[in-house]
Amino acid sequence: MQIGKVVKSNSHVDYVCQVDNPGEFDDCPTAEDYAFGTFVRVDLSNHSGYLVGLIYSTILMNPEFGNLGPRLSPAADLEVFSPDYLREQATLVGIAAVGQVSSTGQVHQGVPLLAATVNAAVETLSSNEVRLFHQSSDGPSLAYAPLLLAEGDRLIPHLLLNVVSRLGDLFPGQEQQLAVLRGNLAWKAAVTPAG
Known about the structure:
Layout: E1 2-11, E2 14-19, E3 39-43, E4 50-61, H1 75-81, E5 90-101, E6 107-109, E7 121-124, H2 127-134, E8 135-136, E9 139-140, H3 145-149, H4 156-170, H5 175-191
Antiparallel strand pairs: 1-2, 1-7, 2-5, 3-4, 3-7, 4-5, 5-6, 8-9
Helix pairs in contact: 4-5
């Protein structure tokens, strides 16, 4: 399902997506579609495949906050009297690119070679696509975990714990391997905020 489009980037691996607003599209995403830890695909131009990303943050934009001045029309009347009125409120989500899938289906985890462009479509990945992205000959692979942990964000261990839990459902029989990683990440999540 499409959740929105890329509106800016903070770096080669950090993108901001504006979530589709109700009224602009027939099928708008729900909050569950862009929840913390959701895997998404960001289309690359020229049919080069797509980036695989993880939603790690949500930002609510409301430029009207604190504006207590007089209004010419109440908000409810704007839709009737000014149908072209532009709603400036938006929900933005931060996406960390954790890899890339080429147009031939080749998976690369880590820093992607290509970058997304402004207005690139952002869609949720299916469970099967998430499993294929993490599939390796030795079981599930999280080669991008050190890249995320190096960011130093306090939410990253929690994000990776979310990923490991999801992979436990997608890779039955790999519980022992995932339990070691889960224990390490749980320790980081508990200790890192303390300094």
